[in-house]
Amino acid sequence: MLICDNLSFGGEIKLARKPTRFIVRDLPNLVQQGIGRLMEKWYEQNVRFNRYEERDITDTLADDLIIRATDVGVCSNRLIPAVLHEWREPKHEAFQERNVWSLFNSFTEALKDSSFFRDGTFR
């Protein structure tokens, strides 16, 4: 499981093997394969984030996406005001541009300030 400072979660990499007598021999290769797959995932995430930065969006589209995120359970109703506030008045200067990257960070900033990470539930 990978949790970035922007609260991006990833858990696609999994190493599994039966504990046979050859585990010590095979373990270095398994770890190397896992690290290689992890590097691929980091590259894919970097490409995705770069695309987010390149895609400008309007306030109307951002508002619509926030509601749609709520409709599909990505964002609780309680977080809508915080996400909107971060979109309209970002805490960080880097997110002043009106693009998908800024909207993504509006969600993550709102989540950082929520009680979600204190008790594991949305309120």
In brief, what are we looking at here?
The protein is mostly helical. It has 5 helices and 2 strands.
Present the secondary structure layout.
Layout: E1 2-3, E2 9-10, H1 23-54, H2 59-71, H3 80-88, H4 100-113, H5 116-119
Antiparallel strand pairs: 1-2
Helix pairs in contact: 1-4, 2-3, 3-4
How would you portray this structure in words?
The chain has 123 residues and is mostly helical. It folds into two domains: 2-54, no CATH class; 59-119. The chain has helices at 23-54, 59-71, 80-88, 100-113, 116-119, and strands spanning 2-3, 9-10. Strand 1 and strand 2 form a beta hairpin. Helix 3 (80-88) crosses helix 4. The longest helix has 32 residues, at 23-54. It is elongated and about 60 Å long.
Sheet of most strands: 2 strands, antiparallel
Radius of gyration: 19 Å
Q: Which strand order spans the largest sheet, edge to edge or round the barrel?
A: 1-2
Overall helicity: 55-70%
Number of strands: 2
Whole-number tally of structural domains: 2
Q: Note the run of SSEs as H and E.
A: EEHHHHH
Class derived from helix and strand content:
mainly alpha
Distance between the first and last residues' Cα: 24 Å
Spatial shape:
elongated
Structure annotation, total helices: 5
The average pLDDT is 83
Q: What percent strand? A: under 5%
Low-confidence stretches: none
